[in-house]
Structure formats: C-alpha cells, structure tokens
Amino acid sequence: MKKRSNNIVTFALALSFAFSTSSCSDFLSVEPTGNLTEEQVFEKIDNVEPLVLGLYKSYRGCRAGRNGLMQNLGNDETQQGNFQLNTEGDQAGMDKYNGQLNPSSKQVQAIWDSRWALITPAAKAIKALGMTKEDPERAKQLMGEACFIRGLVMYEMSMYWGEIPVIDMNRTEELGLGRKPLALVWEYIIQDFMTAAESLPVSYTSDPQRATRGAAYTMLAKAYMSAPEETGFRDFAKADEALKKVMDGKYSLVSSYADLWRYDNPNTVESIFELQFSPRTNDRNMWEFDCGSRACDTWFSQGCYFSGYDFLVPTPFAYKTVEEGGIWEDGDLRKEEALRYDFTYKTNKYKPDGTDNDDPTVYYTITPNLSKTSWTGTTDELEPHIKKFEDFRTDIWSGLGINNMWESGKTFPMLRFADVILMHAECLNELGQTAEAVNEVNNKIRTRAFGGELPADKKWNTGMSKEEFREKIMDERFRELCFEGWRRMDLIRTGKFVELVKARNRWAKESGTIQAFNVRYPIPETEIKTNEAFSPEDQNPGYSTTIK
C-alpha cells in the first residue's frame, strides 16, 4: 500500500534534521512532536541556521563513498574495473546499459535517495526563512544558501532523470509530489540560483564550506547552458552574463595544475565551491578505496595510498595519447597529474623478483607483478588509474598513523575557475565570437597545461569554425576537468552521450546495447511503489516498471 501524503503536518525543529528520507513523499507523513507550532519553531532564526548548515554536510555525504562516485560510471571518461564488473551483480548495467540497468537497480536508487534527502530539508528551510521576522540580512543569506543547495541537487536530478517533482512547501497542495514538466523544473532551478546569487556574500571569513555569490553565478551559468532547449531556458547570453560576474578578479588560476590536487593546499584561489572532506573523520570521502589499484592493495596493503578496489577507473580513451586513439596531447602536464601510470612503491612484503620477503627489515622499491595477484585475468588492475583523489596522508610512509587508503579525504574543488573560463569560451563561440573564444582557451587554460608557454603547434587556430570549436572545447573540458563529475552532464547537454559512450566506454562498446533512452536513468521502483503521486506510467521511456 502506498504511503498517505495528502496533507502537510506540523513538524518540530528536530524533525527538520531527518535527512534519511528514502522517498520524496516521506517527509509529508511525519508525525508532529511537542507542543510548538511550525510558526513558533521557525520564528527564531537560530532554529533555522543549523538546518541550513546541515545541508552542506549532507551534500558531502551524498557525494562521499562508492554511492557518491556511482553516477560517474557509464560515460566515456570512467568505467568500472573488470573484477567489479564480473562480481557486483546488477552494477554491471551502469556501464553496459543492458537489462541490468532497470527500475530495481540498487545503484540508481542510491543516487536518487541521497539527493531527495537534501531537497526536502532545503525546501523546509526556504519556507522557514520566508516566515522569520528576525535579522533580515542574516535570513537573506541563509535563504541564499538553502536555495543554492536545492537548486544544485535539482539540477543534478533533472540532468539524470528529466522531469522530477518540485518540492515547494508553500505550494504543496498545488504542485503535489508527481513529476513536473521540464519547464517548471528548470524555472525553479534557475530561480534558486538567481536568489542565491542575489543573497550570498562574496566570501566568508572562516567557513570555506559555505556557498558564495561566485558559486551561485557559476551554477546559474551551468543551468542556462544545460536546460533542455524545449524548456525555453537555454540561453548562452544569460549564461555569459552570469560568468562575467565570476570573472571580476576574485578568482584566478593557480600557476601549476599540480597545486590543485595537493592534500596540503586546500581552498586555492581557483576554488569557487570546495567540498570540505577530511581524512579519518565522518567527513572522509573514501574515494581512493574505490579508485585505487586492486593489485597494489594485494602487493603493498591498504597502507599504500594508491591501492584500492578498481570500482571507478579511467576508460582507455581517458588515459591514452592522441596517437594511441585517446585524448592526451604530447607535452600536456595535466596527464600525469590526473592519472597514475607508475605503481612503483617501497615495500617490505616482496623482493624485486616477486618472491616473498623473509626479512621485513629490508625494503625494496618495486612494481607489483600482475600475473601473481590478478583475480580477473585482465590487466586493468595495473592500467592507469585516477590520481586526483590520492591522499598521501593515508599512507604508511606519511608518519601520521592512518595507514589505510579507505580513510582518504582530500578537499575537492567541485567548482573552480578553470571551468568558468571554459564555459565563458563556449558561450563566446555560441554567440558568434569564435576567435575570442579560442584566445581564452589558448592564453589561459592551454598555456597553463603546457607549463606556462604554449608551443606553436599546440595553439588553436583563431579561424576555426563554430562547429570545430564545439568539438574541441568538449575535448578540452575532458582534459581539464576529467574525473571531477561533470562529464555526464556535458555529454547530455551537448547531445553526445550515446555516441561517445558507445565508442569510448569499454563495457558499453562490448555490450553494444546502449540506446537513446539511456541518456536518462530509470525512476527507482521504490519511488513508484511508495509515492502515491507516481504510477508505472511515470517511468522514463525504455524502462518497464511492474507494481505488485
């Protein structure tokens, strides 16, 4: 039987922290607690601020661990390792796009559930901040933060699923909990980012986790560039207006691409919105556990900071050179900073010939022997791996005593200035200013990528066509932003998803089953079963839901 969710009930402050919602209808069936009315709870701004601050931690939570990396499977940039593919059941469908990718997929449900657990509290905070009479400036800022989080999560969900419910606590009777037309969904996304941009400060003195005006304008630009054309909201001129607000001198590129990924260099001048992860805490992200090499785990233990379990690995296209049929040009310094090609390590477990070391006081610097350690029969355990998430503090040689890559937790620059420059260049091209767009990329992004001086043969031609620039800017976004979580959105918004995934993702190519409808995930079966505003007919085309 579906849950009853027709009436909004009164809720006390403590209930506003129920972030474990598994269905977008759950929050409407909470029983009231205590004697306070909703108005009495939220008339005090001190009661609302903890809810808003909790949104940041919850967003980090939905991005942490394997579930936080899950949506990066199945594109042309990343895929799962072979052992994972063969041993994790229906997870294989995330790359193969076969019958295993269906409404009962636990992987898809995890992506959906973790985000709905944020939209509901954000909507509650927005309503509360519209009710409070205290401290208008403080309330305005908190409203901007709540709108930023709701807009961010709705943006992700609509990019993944298309039409989604719109949660507005002031319009629940009118909007209900069913899927809404894309035009309404994107109207809310854009309005949330506009409210955030108008309400947020330029910076904070002591809390880098919080969204700023620059973050809001950056996401507003992404929304204008990503909104489906049929919504009427895709607008490169408006996107560029937003980007210019970020290009006012507050942010700049760090001189070396390598400086972005140092564990001891968080929140650089390039960072616009950074997820404040930390190792061996409740805010660790554990990404290296899933992105490191299984062979290195066997040979060197989990105390090796680049060992792991091959859940998320680069596609061959993502680590090969142009001459080999991949993405990387000779001389591009980003290649070695983004990817690990060398697995040499100092260890006392083995001798260089691969035999066991019978003297643990003697250390050798060696590379693991795949033939001795592989469980898969393939070589992808020692093919290039993602390097950006490695956290040396977890290594036994760091001296910090963490000694386990599972505890990894470098801060993560989710929005950075290089992305703004690339989006600005893309907008210039779409607005008929291709030569100016080429100069932006040559003089800033590519010059840094090649060490500060761009070789003549690596400079893009300012006379290229708009169509050629569209292709080249997507390749440059790949090189600059690889493994940072934007590739799926880029492929979807440019209409290249099926074409490039089928050609470049090893498992999708071998399976040959990806189809046009796979640009969207299936609506989780649990949502259709528990949300009375959903029916099997609400399932995305191409997927089938049977309610029992």
Give an overview of the whole structure.
Helix content is 42%, strand content 4%. It is mostly helical. Helix 11 packs antiparallel against helix 17. The longest helix has 26 residues. The protein starts with 37 loop residues before the first helix and ends in an 18-residue tail after the last helix.
Uncertain ranges: 1-21, 27-33
Q: Quick one: overall form?
A: globular
- Largest sheet data: 2 strands, antiparallel
Number of strands: 8
| Widest β-sheet, arrangement of strands | 1-3
Radius of gyration: 24 Å
Strand content: under 5%
Number of alpha- plus pi-helical segments: 23
Helix-strand makeup class: mainly alpha
Mean pLDDT: 92
Oligomeric composition of the shown chains: single chain
Helix content: 40-55%
Name the descriptors.
548 residues, mainly alpha, two-stranded antiparallel sheet, 23 helices, 4% strand, globular
Helix and strand topology:
Blueprint: H1 38-42, H2 49-63, H3 65-69, E1 78-79, H4 82-87, H5 93-96, H6 106-131, H7 136-161, H8 172-175, H9 182-199, H10 213-226, H11 236-246, E2 271-275, H12 287-291, H13 294-300, E3 313-314, H14 316-319, H15 334-338, E4 339-340, E5 345-347, E6 364-366, H16 370-373, E7 385-386, E8 412-416, H17 417-430, H18 434-449, H19 466-481, H20 487-493, H21 497-504, H22 506-511, H23 525-530
Antiparallel strand pairs: 1-3, 2-8, 4-7, 5-6
Helix pairs in contact: 2-6, 2-7, 6-7, 7-9, 7-10, 9-10, 10-11, 11-17, 17-18, 17-19, 18-19
